[in-house]
């Protein structure tokens, strides 16, 4: 199969290039608009039977005017106090939000979003100070300097549709010229999602530009030939373009693909594609130097390197595809996205790069006749001799040095508040600051506690009494700042001149369902909604609510929760389970591949074990750097699973390239000679590939977001550990030790090592 592909590609290089151009033009023409993608993207990331999804549906049925996946908050502030003109402006903005029905995308109406339960469109629910006195007391600050409009919708605030919706709300709020001196900011979940989405788009563009520059500079340093550097770069760039367009098309099929997945895809394609290109070009150059013509040399180079490249890419792709088993939709889609990206990179390496290089012939290496590549160096001969003389020491010393970071990595406590941190100097960050200055700091991100009774509780006095008892239990929980319910519509410590009976009558629809079977409590927490402290407080509050509901309403009462904190707690539970399932699956499938590929048992087990050690060591080192040196509270929870799949899968690339050379040499030499030649022959090129892969991953650090910085550092650290510690020292030493322990047979390739 490989020979057939190589023959057709390399005998007709011009046709191969034209096919790639045609494919690129076709996918560019078929790529949908962002508005079209936003219409069909998934609105939920958790399975239907998860507690948060059930609570959202229950709240949507019981409190249709209150329930929401997303709340966008418009904050108005005048430092000297809001004027009557300001209040008129706020009322005008609220009216426009309620009555706006123009289209903001094909087939979608402005102000209309899919229902949480049915998927049908439902209007924005707008709460403004111009409504009932209850709302005015709630949405205008006590000092009279600030006011809020809250727009609730059923669009997921972290999707592109949520971002477009927040942009539309901001547009409507900005259509009317605001009075001079009135500060207006867009915050809440919708505003936060809008600014994070914009930051992600900027990160994608910045990372792509920096990656291209870094790869070009490294290739120029390696080859000292501009065309030899440009051919891989342009070919990989074309593969990146095709991949991104294909992902846009697949978005119409329900793939939830955000800027983070696209950014990782770009980095992975450039890193892996450059490595594949370097292996092919090195072999192609050697064959040209032997006097072969361009076409036979290209065919022979492809046939020679393709098996190792396919094995390397196949191992990584198989590992990435195991993410499909994740219950959390973004993790599942990330596996498909990255596997697709690497597949395109593989096809490009075996078709487009050979075709373009062959068209150039020896001009590829201009201005010199050859390219300085992986000739055996004194350094690698010294390393190989050291490994052969002291295999046990070279095996145990590096592993001993990794003990501390490995232990630290196994016991990490992760951060879950990455999505809750507004980008610096963004409208959502400024809006949060305004809200915290004039309102309760926790008011923007309260969560709902829902009590469902088996029989209606129709007596208003009984409702107030039962609600008050449960609110007391919630309020006594550590970390809870206040509780709003039918007994305390504006909080337990609110000061208002509105008679309590009138206040409760106006607030009734917020806290008691029309069928009298559901009561709602708004819980304001002191900690940020996604923080570990908020999650601990939430767990305690839910335990208190269940106990109080059982006492006040009987054992049949069901307690549920909706909001940002319940959502992240549910995500944590699902992703913890995903991590266990995916890590076992990734390790298992890679082990099977390695066993089949090497036809050995102990050597693949050893290779996988060293990979797991690198994973935990990388986590420990990353956590130390970000906590102790950079002052970050900890490693983001998304780093854990993504890093595992990338390190375990991609880390096998270097092991496979080295071990394949050793096993090939082992057919005609003893273990020591085969190991020596394998290290000397592959050392320079694998080291160059490792540096390129680490450099491309490190470009994520420049993206400007904490998650990207942590992933960029962790990816680069893991690759460098593989490149300069595990691959040159631990793997060959381990092979020699295993070979010395294996039963000797006449066939040297038949040992168990």
**Approximately how much helix is present in the residues?**
55-70%
Global structural class: alpha+beta
How many domains is the backbone divided into? 4
Q: Identify low-pLDDT runs.
A: 101-121, 371-375, 745-753
Q: How many beta-strand segments?
A: 12
Mean pLDDT: 86
Task: Give the overall silhouette.
Answer: elongated
Whole-number radius of gyration?
A: 30 Å
Number of helices, where a helix is a run of at least 4 consecutive DSSP H or I residues: 24
> How many angstroms separate the termini?
30 Å
Largest sheet: number of strands, sense, barrel closure: 4 strands, antiparallel
CATH class of the largest domain reads Mainly Alpha
Can you tell me the CATH topology of the largest domain? Multidrug efflux transporter AcrB transmembrane fold
Bin the strand percentage.
5-15%
Instruction: Name the CATH architecture of the largest domain.
Output: Up-down Bundle
Arrangement of strands in the largest sheet? 6-7-1-8
CATH superfamily of the largest domain: Multidrug efflux transporter AcrB transmembrane domain
Features:
alpha+beta, Multidrug efflux transporter AcrB transmembrane fold, Alpha-Beta Plaits, 4 domains, 4-stranded antiparallel beta sheet, disordered C terminus
Secondary structure topology:
Elements lengths: L1 H10 L1 H18 L3 H7 L10 H12 L7 E8 L6 H16 L3 E3 L2 E2 L2 E3 L6 E3 L1 E3 L5 H7 L6 E8 L6 H16 L7 E5 H36 L2 H26 L7 H31 L4 H28 L7 H32 L17 H12 L1 H11 L1 H8 L16 H12 L8 E6 L7 H16 L4 E5 L15 H12 L6 E8 L6 H22 L4 E5 L1 H35 L3 H28 L7 H30 L4 H28 L7 H36 L12
Antiparallel strand pairs: 1-7, 1-8, 2-3, 4-5, 6-7, 9-11, 9-12, 10-11
Helix pairs in contact: 1-11, 1-12, 2-9, 2-12, 3-7, 7-8, 8-9, 8-10, 8-16, 8-23, 9-10, 9-12, 10-11, 10-12, 10-23, 11-12, 11-20, 11-22, 13-23, 13-24, 14-24, 15-21, 17-19, 20-21, 20-22, 21-22, 21-24, 22-23, 22-24, 23-24
